[in-house]
Amino acid sequence: MRGRVSSAASSDLRIAFTASDRPEAMSARDSLKARYGSVPMDQADVIVALGGDGFMLETLHTVMDRRTPVFGMNRGSVGFLMNDYEEDNLIERLSGAGRAVIHPLQMDAWGETGQVQSGLAINEVSLLRQTRQSAKLRISVDDRVRLEELSCDGCLVATAAGSTAYNLSAHGPIIPLDSRVLALTPISAFRPRRWRGALLPHQAKVCFEILEPDKRPVSATADSFEVRRVSKVEVRERRDIALTMLFDAGRSFEERVLAEQFAS
């Protein structure tokens, strides 16, 4: 989980700067490129992403195949996954940065015609009702039915990295990054009313079957990739894919997650 950017000690570190479409992010990118130089993303040792958490997720999806480490700096509205923005001493910050390695979820979603569409999620896979009618879901874990019928607005499976995002807003648990568990969290559960979700081993396969899909259509989303009117959704962790986020020394992702649990 932890480590250092070994190549960052060198002044020859190849950095790619990328920015969201916010004016302050683009301005920061231009200033940093002028000061430190820049290379294309496919030639970089490290990518510096300027924006908010949403843009950090976009950047991680962009480097999914190359696995290039990403150091985010906050030039957006939400910056839980980002470091503070500062132009000075960037090479030294990258040299001393700690690593947080995360593994995405794979979503396989069956549509009305039986066709399967797949997507990867760094934060969560979420199912949501599409109409005024509540969703009705049957939930299985490792091919064993654990909840015969959940009436709800939706349900999600979150990674540890995503546990402080939508999962937390849905009153799900905050998960330490090295815990090797996933959060299964209902969204506005109506029946069974007292079910608050579950913590699952990271290797668990979760299956959602949509009950009464014609009357109660449901969409499934892996981060920003959405499939409408699904009939079944399977979710599992892709341990073979490792994505690396970089954080300033002393401000590790693990420390942020721990501090969030004591936030008032």
Plain-language structure description:
- The protein is an alpha+beta fold and 264 residues long.
- It has 2 domains: 6-103 and 242-260, 3-Layer(aba) Sandwich (Rossmann fold), CATH 3.40.50.10330; 105-237, Tumour Suppressor Smad4, CATH 2.60.200.30.
- The chain has helices spanning 23-36, 53-62, 90-96, 166-169, 253-260, and strands at 15-19, 46-51, 70-74, 98-102, 105-110, 116-121, 124-129, 135-141, 144-152, 154-158, 181-187, 198-201, 206-211, 218-222, 225-227, 232-237, 243-247.
- The chain has a 6-stranded antiparallel sheet, with no helix packed on it.
- β8 (135-141) and β9 form a beta hairpin.
- The chain is elongated and about 60 Å long.
- The model is unreliable at 1-10 (pLDDT under 50).
Topology:
Elements lengths: L14 E5 L3 H14 L9 E6 L1 H10 L7 E5 L15 H7 L1 E5 L2 E6 L5 E6 L2 E6 L5 E7 L2 E9 L1 E5 L7 H4 L11 E7 L10 E4 L4 E6 L6 E5 L2 E3 L4 E6 L5 E5 L5 H8 L4
Parallel strand pairs: 1-2, 2-3, 3-17
Antiparallel strand pairs: 4-17, 5-6, 5-16, 7-10, 7-14, 8-9, 8-13, 10-11, 11-12, 13-16, 14-15
